[in-house]
């Protein structure tokens, strides 16, 4: 149905705009609530009148679906922000020589490390994922670091910044390699047969539900999505990275990376 200009679009309508300029309206029946929150601990079933308690997660493993969705979002955020700077992008893993099982202690060491690194490379940006080594129950950190200026993060260069254990670093040469690394870091699919993924999921059983597993530099932009071929119901989600200006053959150009994330 084509919407006329004088028609009002309400919350129960789904409006779709196509590339050819046509607009379509689909009526969506508003869902009828079945529960109502009473307080932070209780809710009532509106059909039966029964009062129940919210099921609160005890460990991160109890919120696997939420963890998985947040990790996917972190993957898209860092790819969108770092892909324009390849090959000046580095993958860094920081581990502790002595087992550090306390999240607060491990985080204090990491913050000290990142402050030192920022003083040396003030324009650098990063994303960091916190994980537990299942065998030793100790924390470690995976980082993707990039900068518009040339940076060198090989293991010896980081020796003065991270003195708590080992440093594994490698330069990311292509956007394909960046995508592979980000998928490796953020894959929490419960159905996966990959043993490394299953071990990573199991480590969530040793984490409190409120722990922050991912963080990044301030000011990074989430990618924008659009759907193609929506009429044919075979939509593909296309990821548009933010447009940026960059130097190419001595000229300043505007570039925009497009990645099919279907």
Q: Would you give an account of this structure?
A:
This protein is an alpha+beta fold and 262 residues long. Helix content is 22%, strand content 29%. It is globular, with a radius of gyration of 23 Å. The model is unreliable at 1-20, 226-249 and 252-262 (pLDDT under 50). The chain has a 5-stranded antiparallel β-sheet, with helices on both faces. Strands 3-4-5 form a 3-stranded antiparallel β-sheet, with no helix packed on it.
E-strand count: 15
Total DSSP helices: 4
Alpha carbon gyration radius? 23 Å
Q: What is the average per-residue confidence, as pLDDT, rounded to a whole number? A: 79
Q: Report on the biggest sheet.
A: 5 strands, antiparallel
- What is the end-to-end distance? 29 Å
Residue runs with pLDDT of under 50 for 5 or more positions = 1-20, 226-249, 252-262
3D shape: globular
Reading the helices and strands in chain order gives EEEEEHEHEEEHHEEEEEE
Strand order of the largest sheet: 9-6-8-7-10
């Amino acid at each position: 149905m084509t919407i006329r200009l004088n028609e009002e679009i309400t919350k129960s309508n789904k409006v779709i705009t196509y590339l050819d300029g046509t607009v379509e309206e689909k009526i969506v029946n508003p869902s009828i609530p079945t529960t109502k929150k009473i307080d932070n601990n209780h809710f009532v079933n509106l059909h039966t009148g029964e009062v129940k308690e919210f099921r609160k997660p005890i460990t991160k493993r109890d919120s696997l679906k939420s963890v998985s969705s947040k990790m996917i979002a972190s993957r898209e955020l860092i790819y969108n922000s770092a892909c324009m700077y390849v090959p000046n992008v580095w993958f860094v893993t920081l581990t502790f020589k002595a087992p550090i099982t306390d999240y607060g202690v491990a985080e204090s060491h990491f913050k000290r490390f990142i402050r030192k690194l920022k003083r040396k490379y003030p324009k650098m940006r990063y994303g960091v994922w916190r994980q537990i080594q299942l065998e030793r129950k100790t924390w470690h950190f995976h980082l993707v670091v990039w900068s518009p200026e040339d940076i060198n993060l090989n293991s010896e260069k980081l020796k003065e910044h991270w003195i708590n254990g080992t440093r594994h670093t490698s330069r990311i040469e292509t956007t394909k390699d960046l995508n592979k690394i980000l998928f490796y870091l953020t894959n929490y699919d419960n159905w996966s047969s990959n043993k490394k993924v299953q071990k990573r999921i199991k480590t969530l059983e040793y984490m409190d539900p409120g722990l922050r597993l991912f963080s990044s530099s301030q000011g990074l932009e989430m990618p924008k999505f659009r759907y193609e071929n929506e009429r044919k119901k075979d939509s593909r989600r296309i990821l548009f990275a933010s447009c940026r200006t960059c130097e190419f053959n001595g000229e300043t150009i505007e570039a925009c990376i497009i990645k099919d994330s279907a």
